[in-house]
User: Fold this.
Amino acid sequence: MRAPIIGITTETNDQNEYVLPVEYANAIRKAGGIPLLLPPGEPRLDELLTLIDGLILSGGGDIDPLHYGSRGHPEVYMIDPARDEMELALARQAAGGDLPTLGVCRGAQLINVALGGTLVEHLPDEIDNTIAHRMEPRGAVPHPVTIAGNSQLAEVIGEEVVVGASWHHQAIRTPAPRLEVVARAADGTIEAVELPGHPWLLAVQWHPEITAGEDPVQQRLFDALVEAARERMRAR
Ligand code: MN
Assistant:
């Protein structure tokens, strides 16, 4: 059997280039999978979905607040309508089927919006400042999150508290009806959700790819995604 192919969504930068941090591909290769980068704007999503065995909805700019019934916020940045459209469709397809899917940061927010949830437009407006969720103006910073026992995430991570690289100014506000909140920061911020009944759909607000190279705990998320993709291939 060939190695599982993991589609990873990408973004269009201000130079009109498709970009993705290399760490995502590194973590998938280390897990034994083949990364396949997916640029925004694909009109043949159904055909694309026949090519991949797993999916990562990657980090990046903010989702257009219109998608969750918000009037927006001055701090909302890097909106990409083509990326939103494709990823919302991918997330709905993944959630409605059995495609193993990992949401990272924006990806977690996106899965939530795709399934009917809402977002905090700008976290610093709404939380006490005991925890930095990003370095100002932009940069990753570590903070601990507490994982709910009996969750799929707890099974994958194997620890009750995990320290991940955090780099976000938004977060899930109202979780989508089908999603279960499975991790929070000490200030109450939702840091992970999963989809009960789905074989493997996890979404984390932090960036496991940033530290997966040196932190085996973070690498477990990618290992488990690739393993779930392998299981799905075996079952078909
Ligand atoms: Mn955080």
About this structure: DSSP finds seven helices and 13 strands in the chain. The mean pLDDT is 97. The pocket of manganese (II) ion is lined by residues 133, 143, 166, 168, 185, 189, 191, 205-206 (CB under 6 Å).
